């Protein structure tokens, strides 16, 4: 049986057997990771796909047993207290959607899972002409630098000496919550105030988003009191245990970082091979697919046809993204590979990140990834149909 070398941008390479997704889909998922790890505003996807490389090594047939990670109960916040405003979930999200150009800062971000896995990054954030300029340097995994200015992302792989240049929609404030038509955050999450505490030396107000059904996880946010910047985020399971945490371990909100200097640091491609993978916005129906039923509260953010290989030597992968305003799910669709064990669905979990992969009716395969319960991913996969 073939052994497959699987890597992510922030995980150690792992060898496993019978990959649940093709190399093209693996590359597409890693592309999403790199495109989204540009600052704290995209911390949920940064955290999700930081573990993707490890997920490949944990994939197992559905029904196989896996030991659930144990994480102690979250401690009660301590610190400087104040009376927090009584806002609903949507109003708290709006508060966290602060203007990203209202502040400059530098910091260190640490992502930790219940299993003990951990990644860390250094980041610089500034603005020029009303557009955020962000530089991120992961401190674990393959040495690289991720840079974003407006709608362009450049990922420098310092080991392979490649730079990938790709377009991206303009950055939004964290959480990366788009203005969704049909999404109602307050309908699916309640709010519980947690009080205040110090995070990375700053005073933050704590707010819990409590899910109103079993389709999604809960969240705890600690928001910097003056700027609205999210300093710490915890994802909480149905039993109230913390699944993952993302937090600034160091933060300087008065850093004199200059956007011009950040821009100059990545202007030269000398010594790097340039890669420009193709990404084209499309619709599922236009590519011959339809999702007959979506779990309650989730709406479509759109679909993209991704050519994961810069050489164009692999079949494109269709990615469709869905969100309820906080949680997000990516559905990847590709042709069925002859090497795949097509009759067995595959599943894996690390912290809050889950993956479900299975054959779709006909000669196709879907991989569904998201920070939602496994049953939610399964519901997405089971309602995919091929139109042609």
How are the elements arranged and paired?
Elements lengths: L2 E6 L2 E7 L5 H14 L6 H8 L1 H7 L1 E2 L27 H8 L8 E9 L4 E11 L2 E8 L5 E6 L2 E6 L4 E6 L17 H4 E11 L2 E10 L6 E7 L5 E7 L5 E11 L6 H6 L8 E3 L2 E5 L6 E3 L7 E9 L9 E7 L4 E8 L10 E5 L2 E8 L3 E7 L3 H9 L1 E3 L2
Parallel strand pairs: 9-15
Antiparallel strand pairs: 1-2, 3-21, 4-5, 4-14, 5-6, 6-7, 7-8, 8-9, 10-11, 11-12, 12-13, 13-14, 16-18, 17-24, 18-19, 19-20, 20-23, 21-22, 22-23
Helix pairs in contact: 1-2
Describe the structure.
This protein is 14% helix and 43% strand. Strand 12 (218-224) and strand 13 form a beta hairpin. The longest helix has 14 residues, at 23-36. With 388 residues, the chain is mostly beta strands.
Could you name the key traits of this structure?
single chain; about 400 residues; mainly beta; 12-stranded mixed beta sheet; 8-stranded antiparallel beta sheet; 7 helices; disordered N terminus
Task: Write a brief structural summary.
The chain is mainly β. It has helices at 23-36, 43-50, 52-58, 89-96, 185-188, 259-264, 374-382, and strands spanning 3-8, 11-17, 60-61, 105-113, 118-128, 131-138, 144-149, 152-157, 162-167, 189-199, 202-211, 218-224, 230-236, 242-252, 273-275, 278-282, 289-291, 299-307, 317-323, 328-335, 346-350, 353-360, 364-370, 384-386. The protein is built from 7 helices and 24 strands.
């Amino acid at each position: 049986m073939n052994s497959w070398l699987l890597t992510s941008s922030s995980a150690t390479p792992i060898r496993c057997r019978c990959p649940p997704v093709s190399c093209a889909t693996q590359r597409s998922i890693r592309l999403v990771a790199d495109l989204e790890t540009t600052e704290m505003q995209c911390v949920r996807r940064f955290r999700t796909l930081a573990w993707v490389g490890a997920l490949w090594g944990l994939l197992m047939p559905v029904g196989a047993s896996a030991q659930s990670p144990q994480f102690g109960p979250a401690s009660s916040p301590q610190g400087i207290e104040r009376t927090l405003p009584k806002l609903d979930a949507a109003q708290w999200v709006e508060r966290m959607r602060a203007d990203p150009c209202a502040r400059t800062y530098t910091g260190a971000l640490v992502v930790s899972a219940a299993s003990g896995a951990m990644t860390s990054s250094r980041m610089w954030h500034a603005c020029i002409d009303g557009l955020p300029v962000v530089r991120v340097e992961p401190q674990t995994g393959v040495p690289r630098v991720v840079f974003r200015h407006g709608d362009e992302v450049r990922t420098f792989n310092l080991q392979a000496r490649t730079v990938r240049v790709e377009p991206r929609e303009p950055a939004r404030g964290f959480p990366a919550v788009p203005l969704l038509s049909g999404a109602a955050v307050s309908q699916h999450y309640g709010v519980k105030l947690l009080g205040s505490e110090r995070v990375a030396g700053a005073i933050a107000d704590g707010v819990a988003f409590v899910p109103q059904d079993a389709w999604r996880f809960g969240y705890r946010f600690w928001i910097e009191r003056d700027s609205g910047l999210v300093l710490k985020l915890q994802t909480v399971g149905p039993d109230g245990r913390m699944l993952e945490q993302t937090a600034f371990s160091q933060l300087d909100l008065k850093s004199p970082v200059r956007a011009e200097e950040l821009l100059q640091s990545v202007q030269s491609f000398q010594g790097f091979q340039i890669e420009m993978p193709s990404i084209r916005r499309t619709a599922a129906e236009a590519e011959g697919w339809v999702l007959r039923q979506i779990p309650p509260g989730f709406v479509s953010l759109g679909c993209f046809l991704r050519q994961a290989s810069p050489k164009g030597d692999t079949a494109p992968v269709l990615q469709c993204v869905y969100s309820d305003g906080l949680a997000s799910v990516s559905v990847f669709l590709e042709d069925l590979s002859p090497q795949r064990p097509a009759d067995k669905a595959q599943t894996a979990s690390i912290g809050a990140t889950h993956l479900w992969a299975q054959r779709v009716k006909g000669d196709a395969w879907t991989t569904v990834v998201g920070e939602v319960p496994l049953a939610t991913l399964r519901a997405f996969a089971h309602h995919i149909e091929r139109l042609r």
